[in-house]
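Re: the pair you flagged

First of the two:
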Amino acid sequence: MNISNPSRSRTTDVAQPLNLPASIEAALQLADVSWHAILRDALQALQVAAPEYLPELAQDSYLPTEGRLFAAFSRPLATTRYILVGEGPYPRAASATGVCFMDGAVGSLWSDEVGGGLSKAVNRATSLRNWMKMLMVASGKLPADGVTPARIAAIAAQAHAPDSPITQSLPQFQAKLEQQGFLLVNASLVFRPHVAPVKEAKPWQVFFLHVLASMQQEMRAQGLALPTLVLWGKIAAQLQQFAVLEQFPQICAEHPYNLSFIHNQEMQAFFAPMDLLGLTTA
């Protein structure tokens, strides 16, 4: 598969019509209309690079389900200030939402048990758990050298207090990220247990690079600042070899499934002003 430095040109639309499988075409409707032309251009690039991929995918079972292939693009392009790049969908149907790091199996963020801290569902979602702990340290509510169950339980107790300003659920957390202008997208949009992740990721890398190239052109034409790329982990960092990424401001870190992510001071400084957990006023 040939991955070239993408440049956007719709003159190829006439020469090479985009004939999407019906299920892929239907999935586009979950994306905001401002993304439709960009996503179609990117899918066309994918189709040229791997002609059999989308027809094969449409005949197979994959995650996310319920037509949520492009769910990450549900907010308007013009509101995008950050692009957080994950690896791929969770390998569980209940968890894979089409939005990176947003585990659909997680409801409440906090345990209902007396003396409990984070909810059991959050504790099972390793990356989300470490992300939350990093945010607690960033807020000043959790000492960097004191990330203990007892201290987290104290924050959970505050969360359960009447009229608490603390973020209660994962949907609320996702809404706050979106309000800050985050696009939460995986480097590979699908997961299939019988396909090696490295193989699955290759056509989606073509797709993602063309999305970035199209964004660059569209946003500059509208006089909008390019969003900051937030690259977590080795798979996301591999994208830096492509020239299109040089046009975007970037911030990089280890993947949050690493415990060291909790103590990443650059990430703490980046997220602290956003107060995503509502801890500053708690």
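Second of the two:
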Amino acid sequence: MNPYIPHTERDIEAMLRAVGLPDVEALFSDIPEEVRRRFRPLGLPPRDEIWVSRYIAGLAERSTGRRLIPFLGAGLYDHYVPPLVGHILARSEFYTAYTPYQAEISQGTLTWMFEFQTMVCELTGLEVANASMYDGATALSEAVYMARRATGGSTVLVPKSLHPHVREVLATYAWAAGLRLVDVPYDEAGQIQLGEIPADTCALIVQEPNFFGVIEDLSGLKERLGKAFLIVYVNPIALGVLEPPGKFGADVVVGEGQVLGLPLSFGGPLLGLFATRMEHLRRMPGRISGRTVDAEGKEGYVMALQTREQHIRREEATSNICTNSALCALAATVYLGALGPEGLRRIALLSMERAHALAARVFALPGFRPAFRGPFLYEFAVACADAQASVERLRRHGIAVAGPALLRKCGVDNAFLVAVTEKRTPEELELFVRALAGKE
């Protein structure tokens, strides 16, 4: 990070003279006066560092969510991040420019990118992966663009059980490209109910597990689609125990990689995963690190493919994505490398065990029932007579869950979402049940 160096009065005067303006306020003259009137001063008063540190800590203490126990899920999850991840990220060997333009001085970056790609391929059961994207939602949207390029179709089948925020991002991309989004309903189990497939379909999207936490059955879907793509949007922790989507014929697997060694951090930064089949390599967005040998036969790594418009002719670019989420992808690489396949499986099983134990106790309480009867991993939807009142009662006891407003966007009334990761303790599960039951 670059140090902050403020401009001196002399610097400011010189810049204003260069652009022919009398003062700094004149720089904002193009902004309408009614907008400028809403401006308020930003920043802190000029005080010493100790005062500023205490002031900022005080503001943080006032945050209403600071001491809540997160049973929140809905796309972002409170998994344990081993200290090893932060330690490796802070090592000077990984300090580099954001883009490894010169392979000869970027071998460390290119090496971990290659390892990251390899791990994503192993998780998804596909043949090639890129070096990451901005987040899961944009990765999914780029996958739809790729499906359109490959098939020529203009209709995308989107399940009502897809995360509503992800769908909003997809809808923006679709509007810009003239794509038509068609809803796919879900059944009583909470799983997709695929009906007739329009002739101009370019892709079917399936979230695994879906927004309700329900595990989808991917078998037979690709066979029904013909040339249209099967795009699976995954939680990569779930792939520690579920079969890779590639085994079910998925053409593209994307996902949100926040669960792989990244803290919640108020919702970001995030990490997009993207994998596909080798035949679609040149249609894939982003960048790919490759392993090769030099003229002397020594192994080395290069940027094998960058199909963005800064590098190739604009009409041949697959995307205008400018970079991969390099630091976040490095964190995921360290996390997966530290855990290994068995460690990842253990995290998924621990989360699943604790989630099912809590669900059994919640659904034994009068007035609470599963919103869906489909199998779930470590997130589930709870239906009741007054979901908002239940959410507020939990919050008064220091527990946070995803409230009914989010579920209503998917057509589910009076329900809330509960996610249980390996971090939730037996004492916290007990507190959850007692709070929901109204026991002080």
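The chain has three domains: 9-53, 69-81+338-436, 83-336.

-B.
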